[in-house]
Amino acid sequence: MLNVALFGPPGAGKGTQSEFLIKKxxxxxxxxxxxxxxxxxxxxxxxxxxxxxxxxxxxxxDEIIVQIIEKSITDNPGYNGFLFxxxxxxxxxxxxxxxxxxxxxxxxxxxxxxxxxxxxSIQRLLNRGKTSGRSDDNETVIRTRLKEYYExxxxxxxxxxxxxxxxxxxxxxGIEDVKTDITKIVKQELSKSLLNIVLFGYPGSGRSSxxxxxxxxxxxxxxxxxxxxxxxxxxxxxxxxxxxxxYEKGMLEHGIIGQNFPDDIVVQLIEKKFQNLNxxxxxxxxxxxxxxxxSYILDGLLRKHTxxxxxxxxxxxxxxxxxxxxxxxxxTDSKMPYDESMSTIIKRLQYHEERxxxxxxxxxxxxxxxxxxxxxxxxxxYKRIADEIEFGFKxxx
Length: 397
Hints:
Layout: E1 2-7, H1 14-24, E2 27-30, H2 32-42, H3 45-55, H4 62-74, E3 81-85, H5 91-103, E4 110-115, H6 118-132, H7 139-163, E5 166-170, H8 175-191, E6 195-201, H9 207-218, E7 221-224, H10 225-234, H11 238-248, H12 263-275, E8 282-286, H13 292-304, E9 311-316, H14 319-329, H15 342-367, E10 370-373, H16 378-396
Parallel strand pairs: 1-3, 1-4, 2-3, 4-5, 6-8, 6-9, 7-8, 9-10
Helix pairs in contact: 1-8, 2-3, 2-4, 6-7, 10-11
């Protein structure tokens, strides 16, 4: 996810650059003034409260502003991120935004400030006033607006300088040059981000084979908890010995490797993958998270590594087709331990329905998800998923 705050004094061309950024990177535009007016126009509870305050000559509180911003973020999961225009306006709002980003399991990637000398701002706005007809485009009003901007903005900019995410561009340059400079900053930020795909689907949908092939094409690390556990056990490490003990104690309920293993063991194995990426650009997660608890664990784990989920994909195959595939596989050399009987197959499908479908619903609400038909040949399904990933990455990068 890409979250950017764009700052600039009146006349710096912030509106033009905002429009460019939201189109190029599929960002949701957050201007507190615009959002507030929309809430009032829609007659929402927050809008009515704000309307009452404004009618009495008061200023809308930060508490109302943050509710509107949070609502806008959670209601628009289909975007690649958010562009904050003119927010945070104060030092206190900077702290508020930090807390909100933590709550939503994301972060502000950078604050970009379009720098423009005060006299240059005044001249631009005076020139605009000759054609705009705006009553506020006169020198007295302009100087007051600039004074207010710099008094409020300097502490905010200092806040983000100390965080190390402040970037500036020279607003004296032409529109295209400023656009180029901003694009360089955004690309640099995106290059730091891991690309993380969560691949869902019922047993028999082909997640494993598709996930491995996709990981190879997009230079991602394939994470399958069952394989991680088996590999660790085979290497006879300290953790591997503990895994073997759990195998022997019957942790393989219904023959599903990793289903009932303690989450702390699984997390340790995933952490090892983070520490040994070896140049991979991110991860494809298959079989994790299986439960809502594990979904919170994954969100926290990615957050720890200043990352988040990039894309959620569900491979959809009709239930009867799934049963047919699993039954056929049970009679081949490639059968898995959990393919041995129809009762085991049914239990696996039920487990997914009861435990994993709620996870998919959660991620759909938070991030949006893409359903891909899993019917057809391997190559046909692979192309559908690869095209979707390619499209998503192209929009993001």
